[in-house]
Structure formats: C-alpha cells, structure tokens
UniProtKB/TrEMBL annotation:
It comes from Oceanospirillum linum. The keyword Acetylation does not apply. This is HTH araC/xylS-type domain-containing protein. It comes from the Bacteria. GO terms for molecular function: DNA-binding transcription factor activity; sequence-specific DNA binding. Keywords: DNA-binding, Transcription, Transcription regulation. The keyword DNA-binding applies. Residues 197-295 form the HTH araC/xylS-type domain. InterPro entries: AraC_XylS_family_regulators, Homeodomain-like_sf, HTH_AraC, Tscrpt_reg_AraC-type_HTH.
Length: 296
C-alpha cells in the first residue's frame, strides 16, 4: 500500500505516518471521506493540532494504557470498542503506552454540512461536532467491527457497502453528536414503481462494474441518504445487500456454463479476484463455486 497515493488533506493520517504506527488498510470512500486501520506497538507522544478535518476513531484492540493529555489533567479509559471523536478545529494530545489497534474515519466539515442539508432539505451552516474521548457507543463499535472491517476494502464488489456504511456513520454522528442539528420527520415513502423498474434494470446491466451508492443515488436523482432509505422501504434490504445478492445469483447462473472459468465469472459479476468471489459465494450458498458447479 503506497502512502504517497493518499490525500494530503488528511493531516491526522500524515501525522500517524510519521510515527511508528503501521498502516494495515486504507481506502478512499465514494462520498469523499476515507478510512484507515492502524496498529501501534511502541510508546510515543502524538499530537493532532487543528487538522482541518474531523476524525472518528474506533478501538479494535488494546488501548488500555493510552491517555489523553489536557492542560491540567490526563484522561484514561481506552480499550476495545471505545470511541474517540476529534473535531477538525480541535487540538488533541495523546500519550500512547502499550499496543493499540484502531480504525479511523476521516471526513470534512463540508461533508457533514452537506449531509445535514440533504437530510433536512435545507442549508445547515451551524453545526458543532462534539469532542469526545473514550466514549461508549455500541452502535458505532458494532458497525466498525462487524460491518466495515470485514469487508474487502480493495474489491469493487464491496465499494457500495463501504460507502453506505460510512454514510450511516456520519448520519449517526450528525444526529447524536452535533449541536444545532434539528431532526425533521423521516420520509416513509419508497421509490415509485417506474423508478424501481428503471433502477433494477440499471443494476442488472452494471453488475460487472464497481457500483457505488453515489452512482445509484444519482441515477435516481436523490441524495444518497434519501435514496438508501427509500430503496430499503421499496425492496426490504439495503442497496449493497441487494447488489451483492444479484452478483451472486448471476454467478450461480453462469457457473452452469462450464465453458467459463471461475476467474472469468468473478470478473463478470463485479468481483476483482476469484478468491474474494469464492469467499462470498460460500458465505451465501454454503458451498464453494467449484462444489456448486459439480452439483449442477
């Protein structure tokens, strides 16, 4: 993984790159945010000074001995599942002791305001993201550890799930940790029957492409937030779940054509590698693609 390809607009990422921290995974997300997984083994002092972007940190392992340094006191309480929220205009100083494994989500103030505006259908210019240290939020922790982390961050087939999950995270932050955010009644309607047909046709024609939530929402001429909600109302599942099922259903049909190799089928169904395709296929059908082919 080449750090030179990463956005220079992420000073927290760059700061960690200059320490003994080891980068395990990184991806740019379709909504302009990015995510990274880091591991630190060495004790060190780290300071993020007014980075200009927000950072959500979720502890995956360790972190019991880390302390945040304030002007007149220090604060402990880290550990697996704990969450830190660092606003872009803040200054945070950390005394890292002992091993720590954590995930970061980086996003801008502009993204947060734009998301609030899309949800509320009006301008949101006065948001204040809270500064939180070692808080407990089981919803965030579960989403990071059980949904985002297991995904293949480099595979096109998981791009829509990654972007959907990052949007869900930011909506949660907006509703629970932003001052001056006013909740409006949620829309309960679904997509029109005509749009449903058009959308499903579009998905079928592009299953071999790296479909994203942003692309599907643009096709429906809706914000990503409203599109995801209306899609679930209409089809009973999230967009990424539907797309993944359609990829696997198509793969099952193609496997019956024994003139096609499994690697070719993987590419035709939007998976960037045969190994990732095989893993997802087995999770869904409880047999490997090869075993499925033998039975058909």
């Amino acid at each position: 993984m080449d750090p030179d390809t990463l956005s220079l607009s992420q000073p927290v990422f760059q700061c960690l790159s200059n320490t003994q921290a080891r980068l395990e995974n990184h991806t740019e997300l379709g909504n302009g945010s990015s995510a990274a997984i880091w591991r630190r083994e060495e004790s060190d002092l780290t300071r993020y000074q007014h980075p200009g972007h927000h950072t959500l940190s979720c502890y995956l392992g360790g972190g019991h001995a880390i302390r945040r340094i304030f002007a007149h006191h220090t604060q402990g309480g880290g550990g697996p599942g704990r969450i830190c929220l660092m606003p872009g205009d803040g200054d945070s100083h950390w005394d890292v002791n002992g091993p720590i494994h954590f995930m970061h989500l980086y996003f801008s103030e502009q993204q947060l305001k734009a998301l609030a505006g899309r949800i509320q259908d009006k301008s949101s210019d006065h948001l204040q993201l809270q500064d939180m240290t070692f808080m407990e939020d089981c919803w965030i922790s579960s989403l990071c550890q059980q949904v985002i982390r297991p995904l293949n961050w480099q595979d096109n087939a998981d791009r829509i799930a990654l972007s959907s999950a990052s949007d869900m995270l930011m909506v949660h932050l907006l509703k629970n940790y932003c001052g001056d955010y006013i909740r409006l009644p949620e829309s309960k309607g679904g997509l029109s029957p005509y749009l449903q047909r058009q959308l499903l046709d579009y998905i079928e024609q592009h299953l071999d492409h790296p479909l994203t939530l942003q692309e599907l929402a643009a096709f429906a001429q809706l914000s990503e937030y409203h599109f995801a909600r209306m899609f679930k109302v209409s089809f009973g599942q999230a967009p990424h779940q539907y797309v993944t099922e359609r990829r696997l259903n198509r793969a099952a049909d193609l496997i019956r054509d024994k003139s096609l190799s499994l690697a070719e089928i993987a590419l035709r169904c939007g998976f960037s590698s045969q190994s990732h395709f095989s893993q997802r296929f087995k999770q869904y059908y409880h047999v490997t693609p090869a075993q499925y082919r033998k039975g058909h």
